[in-house]
Amino acid sequence: MNFFIKTFGCQMNVNDSEKIRHILREKGFSAVDNEADADIVIINSCAVREKPQAKIFSYAGRIPKGKIIIAAGCVAQAEKENILKKNPDIHYIVGTHGYHKIGSIIEEIGKEKKRGVEAGFSKQWQELTPYVEFRESPVSGYISIMEGCDNFCSYCIVPFTRGREKYRPFADIVREAEYLSAAGYREIVLLGQNVNNWRDERKNMKFSDLLDYLAGNTAVRWIRFITSYPGYYDGELIAVMAKHEKIARHIHFPVQSGSTRILKKMNRVYSRTRYLQIIKDFKKKIPAIKFSSDFIVGYPGETEPDFRLTLSLIGKVEYTSIFSFMYSPRKFTRAYKMQDDIPLDVKKERLHRLQDLQKTIQLRNNKKLIGSEIEALVTGPHPKKSGEVIGRTESYQVVNFVSGAAPGEIKRVSIKNVGPYSLRGEEL
Fold first, then answer.
1. Cα torsion angle, 145, 148, 149, 155, sign
2. Has residue 165 been placed in a domain?
């Protein structure tokens, strides 16, 4: 039987799809590139916001009849039986902790045509390292080091879709990093909902120890990690990053709001002042460090002064990029019970102001790069421009240039022109 996986969401979802692909290929199933050629369609879903969740049900309704359809991932975990009630064409629900059973589930569906749900939470880490041939990228290797979240931010559904925090053992992480390095990967990306809260209690190790070891013992060009929680930062982690140039000078550092009052309502454990102090500490030790972030506008109770504090924080930090969204209530969360009191037109207006400010900052700072020389890791050929490739800089900016380089090669590029969202260079 042939299968196709449609992935919605973050890097964790992409890595989960790699694991599912590994499991099914090992079971003897064949992967195909589109729904039409598949006997089995697996929808790996994201539930972090309302709009992506709606897209999943819309996509499921467009799948040709006669396919075995499995809803997997975060929406599957959160909605469970409700999905089967809403869409009679979906055969099975597989939550975030049930991927290791998916091969057997498909065999069961094939024999009995039964519908069902596998969406319990596991307290134990489910170890699986996808083979290189089952991964999305030949350049950047994702390594899950922990899963789940214990923070229960008021707006966030993650604890209800990924469960409580579980930490992957140090030895297994190192084994996967060495495997990817030996396979020629140029960068590895450590993944977790609170990646900087990872620990291995048996070895008395925390995230800074893991990062220090990998940077000193893994033959890759860059090591990245996503996503960091500002409440867990300390001087040891900053010192480790300053010690190793191999750790990319870029951190995705979600703040969500620039107002301490709103951060408290969100159940974020840091203040605006604390967040900015961490940024200052990083820049003092690592002057070249760059940051990206996430923002929610229109959170319940957000006033215009609160929003202006967010704009001023963006102006102070000058992020290389951001992800920004209007608040949408998520079932199960504490904020779901709050009055969603910011009108939609106000949310849209604030989002546009925030994005316009960020666009201005990015263009201004990108213009400063014209004439400079930077390293670019080639991720692949440009999909629309023959002879060009797309690369990523250390600060995770897109750079386009003419080259015959293969994915994984690192090229020295002179920046000739820029826009707010990408750079254009010339290979040296």
1. positive
2. yes
What are the Cα distances from residue 37, in Å, to 2, 23, 171? 7, 19, 40
84 inside domain: yes
For residue 90, the one-letter residue type is I
- Tell me the C-alpha distance between 422 and 231, whole Å: 31
Residue where a domain terminates, one of 367, 388, 419 = 367
CA–CA distances in Å: residue 56 to residues 47, 184, 190, 245, 412:
9, 35, 27, 40, 41
One domain, residues 92 and 51:
yes
Mean pLDDT for each consecutive 10-residue tract of the chain (428 residues)?
A: 88 90 91 90 80 74 85 84 83 87 84 78 82 91 94 92 92 96 96 94 96 96 94 91 96 97 97 97 96 97 98 98 94 92 96 98 97 96 94 96 96 97 96
Looking at the domain assignment, is residue 126 inside a domain?
no
CATH of the domain at 289: 3.80.30.20
Could you count the other beta carbons within 10 Å of the beta carbon of residue 370?
14
pTM above 0.90, yes or no: yes
| CA 426 to chain centroid | 30
Q: What pLDDT score was predicted for residue 334?
A: 94
How far does CA 381 lie from the centroid of its chain?
Answer: 23
372, exposed or middle or buried, with CB in 10 Å at 0-12, 13-18, 19+?
A: exposed
